[in-house]
Design goal:
171 residues; single chain; 6 helices; mainly alpha; 0% strand; globular
């Protein structure tokens, strides 16, 4: 179990470093904000208890807010994604079976299920994040465009990360 905890912590550190040192400095037309650090939350074990999952998501978002000098946008959006993950992870990834997946990913579950899971939760994150950032639906078109484009780019980066940094397991 200690090896698994070290792997999770290592993944968090790697993804946060990639986010803070590289992706936070990437500006793609003002509508695309790749946030790969979310993958650290989405790849937590599916059998994880609710309260620790919510606390980890909130702390991760709060850390990103502090590092980006923001007003809690990441913390709120990450916490909402963690709540949605609690609701949807079992339905999408394990299809209702009582299995625990130690690190949900493209190699540990069927690729179409993982990509569906990724797209749903990334869309939810970005919709919340951009709605809060723009203080409402005043610019609804900009919120939707930013949500769609950022979700696509982050999903592509997440899949690329999966192929580069995770081991292929038997499905």
């Amino acid at each position: 179990m200690n090896k698994e905890i070290l792997r999770i912590v290592g993944r968090f550190v790697l993804l946060l470093l990639i986010q803070l040192l590289v992706l936070n400095h990437v500006y793609l037309g003002g509508y695309i904000m790749p946030m790969l650090y979310l993958l650290a939350i989405l790849m937590l074990p599916t059998g994880m208890k609710r309260i620790p999952l919510l606390l980890i998501a909130f702390a991760t978002g709060l850390l990103m807010d502090v590092m980006n000098n923001m007003l809690g946008f990441h913390a709120i959006a990450c916490t909402i994604v963690a709540m949605m993950r609690i609701l949807f992870a079992d339905r999408i990834l394990t299809r209702g079976e009582p299995t625990v997946i130690s690190a949900p990913g493209i190699h540990s579950v069927s690729p179409q299920y993982f990509i569906s899971y990724l797209l749903i939760l990334l869309s939810a994150f970005y919709l919340v994040f951009f709605t809060i950032e723009l203080f409402g639906f005043r610019n609804f078109g900009a919120v939707i465009l930013s949500t769609i484009l950022s979700t696509i780019v982050t999903a592509l980066l997440a899949v690329l990360y999966q192929f580069i940094f995770t081991k292929k397991e038997a499905i």
